[in-house]
């Protein structure tokens, strides 16, 4: 069963796990970039009255998280998959966003580039603030400001450090709106916390990842944590070709709950709002035969009984989301190995989707 | 293998399949209701400048479809799960909708009722146009206009005729904005078309439903067809406890595609926009070993090669969506029977979710 694992270590074919472990460096680098460009970003966002995030796949999920966070700063924001913007533009709200925020690891995704061109044409006054890992990309020439996560560049197809470092950038935008120049103080210590999380939960992630008796994974979150749930779903699916689903917290009861059985793990991203709604859900999943894995701040999960539990370091609001995804990336990796799959080369996929 | 099927017929325990077959009657009844209330609805919508749909599960998916259609009539619209509105309200766009459109089969879902109360409090000027199957429900007293699909009432937990009849009501709202009183002419013949679809595709749905070698179902659509894809995903999941997923058309390539193998059926809801993007996707799924099932108008699918195909009767725009879901409901039903499950009693679920 662990043949692949041994083989990977011996042969050094561990691109994905190496990249997962490089998250602290990627975070450090992107925070430097954000400090450098804080003034540009701040002035671009300060005059905005509406904001549109777009991207594909993991980058769209980052956009969803961004829209939820930005709404909390009282700037009305939306996220739309870039593909929908080019195939069915008339079915989307006819908003004229002041700021368009495309997200693309490669900066080369055809749909995202087309969506930005289309949006610029429709709203000539709008400004473009892009987030990418690729300094010299086609997205650059469409952007007023380009935020680059230089150490987020990956060989792996599945997004790991690219996701968490671009996520920190997305969080930074909201903190800039709330704190101005003081934003950077709130991110102090994030790379160290990332290292702590990677070390602290590797054993747990490996334990769950190796449980090949588990057949179904469900990820639940509310608000910005729903975007995290989607990324967790996709990460586990791509790496280990596993049945995985994601829903907004309470939507789970309206049908999807039917799949819960003894081979099901329901992962709940705990967040402050929601209170007993989280606890009730966890109890219910256990009562119908599923297992539960909760992630959140210790203070929010007091007295809660679950099968697995990961306590995320306490940090200022909107600066800790990137810490939630690393244990799931590790879990997906070890599950792939346990199932005899190569996490470096997920089936059917390419790194960049060009049409 | 067909023991359950025989048993159900002999014992008359066929609530779900009976209700699937009652769709033409449910459509006829809801169209009468809509004609009766057309003036009220029309005047409520005519002055609106923004519109918010909400609901849970299948009703939220109806809201998503409604938002896409209403956007096409140039009225900016959004859909939000009712649960998110009560757990994470601050992470949602701070819009002040003139019209709130809650959808609830029972008119009693706790989250939907709470969301409507909350929205009315925040926007005292807004009006509430509700869609339900239950005449005497708690939603009534919160509504300015209540559209009731009287024949949509179901014994079954899985939504079938309730979904398609409330969907026709949602489509009617958009046609009213486009055509005024002439809207009803565009819906002429819909019950007959529904009967045709049920008869024409029962054999095909049974054939696919009985293919228990298929392990994964993926449903894809763009714009308003994405909401249909979500409902198809949920319907098959609830009835047959099957691995089923749904994505906006082009999002599928950005990761989820990895699950496609020889036991995978990808169902594509074809719609006019998109053109060759649909064809390319269908070809790609077949080339990586999956099977394909396309549904749409004959004229849109000319020359396309797929494993299965259902040609939906040609009708005026925004009056044919309810025809797409019936073959999937039949498929889910026959798959449940084939797997030895009772489609009338999906695991873990209740008809109405009250918190």
From TrEMBL, chains A, B:
- List, in alphabetical order, the Gene Ontology terms for molecular function in this entry: carbohydrate derivative binding
Under the heading Pfam families, the entry gives: SIS
One example of a Gene Ontology biological process annotation: carbohydrate derivative metabolic process
Q: What is the superkingdom listed in this entry's lineage?
A: Archaea
Family matches, as InterPro entries: GlmS/AgaS_SIS (IPR035466), GlmS/FrlB_SIS (IPR035490), SIS_dom (IPR001347), SIS_dom_sf (IPR046348)
Annotated SIS domain residues? 41-183, 204-346
Instruction: Report keywords, A-Z.
Output: Repeat
Q: Which PANTHER family match?
A: GLUCOSAMINE--FRUCTOSE-6-PHOSPHATE AMINOTRANSFERASE, ISOMERIZING, GLUCOSAMINE-6-PHOSPHATE DEAMINASE
| Entry protein name | SIS domain-containing protein
Q: Specify the species.
A: candidate division MSBL1 archaeon SCGC-AAA259D18
